[in-house]
Amino acid sequence: MTAVSTADKLVSVLGAKTAKVLEAGLELVTVGDLLRHYPHRYAERGELTKIAGLEIGEHATVVAEVRRSVVTTSGKGGVMCKAIITDGTRELEITFFNKGKFHNGKLRPGKRGLFAGKVGMFRTTLQLAHPDYMLFEDEFDEVTAAEEWAGALIPVYPATKGLNSWEIARCVRQTLDMIDDEAIDDPMQEALRGELKLPALATALRRIHLPASYEEVGSAKKRLKWDEAFAVQLLLAQRRNAFTERVAASCPRRAGGILDQFDAKLPFTLTAGQQEVGATLAEELTARHPMHRLVQGDVGSGKTIVALRAMLQAVDAGRQAAMLAPTEVLAAQHARSLRELLGDLGMAGELGAAEQSTTITLLTGSMPTKEKRQALLDIASGVSGIVVGTHALIQDTVSFAELGLVVIDEQHRFGVEQRDALRNRGSGDIVPHVLVMTATPIPRTVAMTVYGDLEVSAMRELPQGRSPIATNVVPSAEKPAWLDRAWSRMREEVGKGHQAYVVCPRIGDDEDKPPKDGGSDRRPPLAVMDVAPGLANGPLKGLKVAALHGRMPPDEKDAVMRAFAANEIQVLVATTVIEVGVNVPNATAMVIMDADRFGVSQLHQLRGRVGRGSAPGLCLLVTELPGGTATRERLDAVASTTDGFELAQLDLEIRREGDILGSAQSGTRSGLKMLSLLHDRDVIELARQEATKLIAEDPTLAQQPGLSRVLSELVDAERAEYLDKS
Ligand code: ADP
Ligand code: MG
Asked: Which of 44, 55, 243, 536 fits a disulfide with 545 by CB distance 3.0 to 4.6 angstroms?
């Protein structure tokens, strides 16, 4: 027998026809690819697969029993054969349009076997379309399922058109028969493998495909998960390592500087979290290695002060600090609130400035040319100490005199590439320190994987005296009176001198025609441009109502925000432009229309806009969806807790993990088949420790050719994925 290796093309092992189907349907090209195509579950002969869990459209493989079968003659004289299979409770119909497959009444009541096909629905009957089957005891066929898996677990593979689960199993078995264990390179260090009691890679692969027991499946999974976790963590450890080897400007805290004076006049005491994170940042800014830290703190936890204090330390050290916000509204608001917080300390060059002071410069993409030119000049000459802006800031046209620190607010709108671009904005070989702030709490395992090139700190408590936000679901279809009540609650809040937000999923201007929901009879999502006049002339008549959305001209947006901040507008009807960072403490109520159109974290962010002052906040989630649906349960969950960390976990469970990794673009989808960010926390933590240790000793993995190869595969896959997207 010729020796087969993992790099060999499948065509040489399985033949052209099968190899073609595997490549077209599952993107499997090499022997290694096929061995990494793991079963997604296992079936047992004695155990019928629950039909209730199947999803329409899914390509399913089930163990079932034939209940009855009939042959009918259809109108055109053709023969149609139909069988009903069951899991003991529910039934599935399988239909064949010719007698070939059905032959000779093999599908007799009581027979058990594997059935595969696409799950469909015909009228009210659940069906398997284009079914394939293999009976456990079949007098007519030489190869039966019973022979193939005598007594063992039956691997069930993600299948594809033209190749069902057991055909894939045959391919895998054939391949495993032809490959020697020695031909499967094991990149793992023997010592570590022994320490962690993990099986060798070849053993793990054989066991995952052909397990004799669930214990074998378990040990194989442990090993395969480790490999994935370790590869990603090595990559991240290398990135961290490469980054810290670069040089940053040391910005030690200067006694008697602006920061000291700012602290002296702070009207409140910092929370424990603010102090702790502040101390960490102060120390890291002092180092000559660039800081690269993610601070996560729930909405309202006071991240702005933390960022400002870090920026002042940089300014005191003679450097500039830049703060990036995801939207122009937010950038303008940040500039305004930083100016307010700093008072005379931020008025350098103006009348009434403190003896030591700095200048805050706003720079956004759509500023009038003249203003922008002046801002660019100030930034380049070093007149600006703190620069606040949108992404326009990272464009090449902006040159800083002495950029020392970059603060990125609201990380979830910022990609890895943008962060990378920023790191290169320093002067010469000096890179700026980077502080990333996010209000979307990230579960630790995700932080360690997706944002694994950053160090992470969290601020968990809110400042004292913050009022709780009460959240309620308003089922407007079932209980229209509740919606009326919602509007009168808004009037009451305004009556008390407070303000309110109404959030809609859509803008509704000319550029934004309602999407035609093909086939679905749901009405289009509500739009700001319809709801605002509707309220002003209807339930909120007499109140000062205004609209705000992302496509308004910047100066108009700014004017509306200012008017709202000054309580000249009582009810602001807006899109999610207000989702992040908008801070108007007098706003106490929020109504979110079509709340079912928003994600869990987004709803949590949105409601964080109210209850920022001393009066209690109220958030109403309006939806037409009936109770009992998954979406309604999601809304109930948001209503039941204000713990952002808990909701983030929930959000993660709802979204597919691949989406999270995919959008963050670090760690690759292709690299994570077995590892679950939700459930494999222990493995991820251990892998991170070991990877950090190994990279510290051997940054380029020169001593570990196996690992280094795994890594280069991972990086390539990542690059390929990145190119795919652009
Ligand atoms: P976020 O973390 O959501 O960005 P902000 O930084 O906007 O929160 O802070 C929300 C509000 O809390 C602001 O009005 C801010 O001045 C106030 N604040 C921040 N820290 C404290 C504190 N330690 N004590 C009292 N109020 C604080
Ligand atoms: Mg903020």
From this structure: 536
Indicate which ligand has the atom closest to the C-alpha of 323.
Answer: 2
- Sign for the pseudo-dihedral over CA of 529, 535, 541, 547: negative
Instruction: Write the pLDDT tens digit of every residue in 542-570.
Output: 999 999 998 898 889 889 999 999 999 99
Task: Report how far ligand 1's centroid is from the alpha carbon of 607 (Å).
Answer: 15
Say how many Å lie between the CA of residue 395 and the centre of ligand 2: 23
- The protein residue with its alpha carbon nearest to ligand 1, atom 17, reads 302
pLDDT one-digit tens code per residue, 272-310: 999 999 999 999 999 998 998 989 887 778 999 999 999
Taking the centre of ligand 2 as the mean of its atom positions, its distance from the CA of residue 659, in whole angstroms, is: 25
CA distance to 131, 307, 510, 549, 672, per residue, from 556 (Å): 61, 28, 18, 10, 46
Same fold, 11-181 and 469-641: no
Our CA dihedral for 197, 203, 204, 205, rounded to 10 degrees, sits at 170
Average pLDDT over residues 21-43: 91
Distance 455 CA to ligand 2 centre (A): 19
Q: What is the pLDDT of residue 211?
A: 92
Distance, CA of 262 to CA of 252 (rounded, Å) = 16
Ligand 1 and 210: CB distance under 6 A: no
pLDDT recorded at residue 301: 86
Ligand 1 atom 16, closest CA: 302
CATH H-level superfamily of 273-286+302-438: P-loop containing nucleotide triphosphate hydrolases (3.40.50.300)
Name the more confident of 583 and 274: 274
